[in-house]
Design goal:
Helix content: 25-40%
Number of strands: 13
Shape: globular
Structural class: alpha/beta
């Protein structure tokens, strides 16, 4: 079928971008006719099926709509794949697709009202965690009633075999973190507090960080230099080699969907030290045992949970590592695309649930304001629509 993917960014590093790149490499091979449109990317791609709209914070909703309208034809007779459903509240009437399907990769502050603003715009939603399936079903009951909300397993390139590890007794425990070093969502300013709690608990640890970002220099000053390694950005075999050297993986994020980095670490037998933030990561970690999940953001409890895990016999830790790896068995690219294609074929064959023709957007003065200003001062105004 004809597929039209729509999202904000393509070139940046992130879980959504990694999935979009898999689609770009695979959709045509699986018999689809794909196209990709990105709101905030400049239109300087070297691939004809990738298009950027060049939006920026200085654009208004009105000017965004004018640019988007010139791309409306690409949605005709297609199934639109709206990743995280960004912008649908003010762009859906310019998206004349046969069906609109959301692919929800993330949880975030304000997700519930965001989902509520999608009523009548979608024909189905795929979610990367059971927690998100429940959230979408609660917020969009018409889709849930029609069995149009489904779980899709995030694909990861796991290790072919779990590396051997020396016993944890009487050696430094290696705790890893992966992500963009920023305050938004990742809240990396919490990492020094976690390190202090681990030191206060008398744990012999080393913190290893994979990634880069605007707060790296600050972290280099704040984290204990003798206990911290900054690996920077890695990919491929170099990335997997770093993961293979970890004992635990942790996070201090405000929210997550189902972190791909955690699944990749699980494939290497890395155990979680996971804050309970209502994400898919919580669910997977809890399957391994209570000692692997701590109350966000009680760093003293995180240290106590780690001490409890370290006190277990090496055989118990080995079993937990094997179970962590087993949790990733379904998370293959083949299974992801099998679920994706089956869901889209069913949605395309069944009656349409979204409104085929949406009312013309009324005049809103706020549609003429800079979008960057709107998102800071009145974010809910960005989601206004004619109901």
């Amino acid at each position: 079928m004809r597929l039209s993917h729509f999202f904000t960014y393509y070139r940046s590093l992130g879980g959504v971008q990694s999935i979009l790149k898999r689609h770009h490499a695979s959709d045509a091979r699986r018999g689809h006719e794909p196209g990709f449109l990105f709101a905030f990317e400049p239109d300087n791609f070297d691939k004809p099926d990738l298009t950027g709209l060049g939006f920026g914070g200085g654009h208004s909703i009105r000017s965004m709509r004018a640019k988007f309208a010139r791309q409306s034809d690409r949605f005709t007779d297609s199934v639109a794949i709206c990743h995280n459903m960004w912008g649908l509240q003010f762009l859906a009437d310019l998206m004349p697709a046969k069906r609109r399907v959301g692919l929800l990769h993330s949880d975030w502050t304000g997700l519930r009202p965001h989902l509520g603003s999608q009523r009548g715009l979608l024909d189905g939603v795929l979610c990367v965690s059971n927690a998100l399936v429940e959230r979408v079903s609660d917020c969009l009951p018409d889709l849930a009633k029609a069995n149009r909300v489904a779980l899709i397993p995030y694909p990861v390139d796991g290790l072919a075999a779990m590396p051997e590890r020396p016993p944890l007794a009487k050696r430094t425990v290696v705790i890893g973190w992966v992500g963009r070093m920023q305050s938004e969502q990742k809240r990396v300013e919490r990492l020094p507090g976690l390190a202090t709690a681990l030191e206060s608990a008398g744990i012999d640890f080393r913190l290893e960080l994979l990634g880069d970002g605007p707060r790296r220099a600050w972290l280099e000053r704040q984290l204990p230099s003798g206990r911290t390694v900054f690996h920077g950005r890695k990919s491929g075999d170099e990335y997997r080699a770093v993961l293979s050297g970890w004992d635990f993986i942790t996070s201090v994020s405000d929210y997550e969907g189902l972190p791909i980095s955690m699944l990749e670490a699980f494939s290497a037998g890395v155990l979680p030290l996971c804050p309970a933030i209502g994400s898919g990561g919580d669910e997977y970690s809890a399957k391994l045992g209570d000692e692997f999940v701590w109350n966000a953001f009680d760093f003293a409890q995180a240290a106590a949970k780690l001490k409890s895990a370290l006190a277990q016999p090496e055989s118990a830790l080995g079993q937990a590592r094997a179970e962590a790896r087993a949790l990733t068995a379904r998370h293959t690219e083949a299974e992801y695309f099998r679920v994706f294609d089956t869901f889209l074929q069913r949605v395309a064959a069944e009656p349409r649930l979204s409104a085929e023709r949406l009312a013309k957007r009324p005049f809103y003065f706020s549609d003429r304001l800079p979008f960057g200003l709107m998102t800071r001062l009145w974010p809910s105004g960005c989601a206004r629509r004619n109901d």
